[in-house]
Give the backbone structure.
Amino acid sequence: MTLREYLNIAITTGSINRSISCIHTLYYPDIEDPRDIHKIYHSYTSAALELINLPHDSHITDCIDPVIKEIALTQYLDDDTGTEHTDVHGITGDDKSETCAIEWTDWIELIDLPVHSEKSLDITSIICHILYDITFNGYTRAQILSSIQELSDVIRDTEVDKKSNNIIPFKLDDI
């Protein structure tokens, strides 16, 4: 199923509230003020509604990310705490062997992509993790596009600085 299909089911059945409750519990556990909780529910509900109302099959070729073929959810164990976490990422490459972050991706590029979870997650969990991840830089497509532009500007400026020898390249292993 695609992200749009998952969101449509959640919104039409009312289970979107369970997904947002999951976001609150997992990602904002210290927020207890009812007004702040209301802001969480409002922001994520608005984002979900905007996502499902995006045009179908609109692919933009001028983007930072490589062409993403699907959205994947992978579970991993935190070595320090022993708790399980869910990573959301894009699958790229002709053989779908490469991954990339999706929080810098235009929502229109994501909405009609298939979603794959290596572990059987329910719709509440799938939406919880994806919605949290793709709203990292804003709760609207306009905010996401602005963040993408800001990142593009930084990348462009860095490339200019490299060419003018104002940046000294190094490897983290060398530090």
Remarks:
- Residues 103 and 133 are 6 Å apart (CA to CA).
- The longest helix spans residues 141-163.
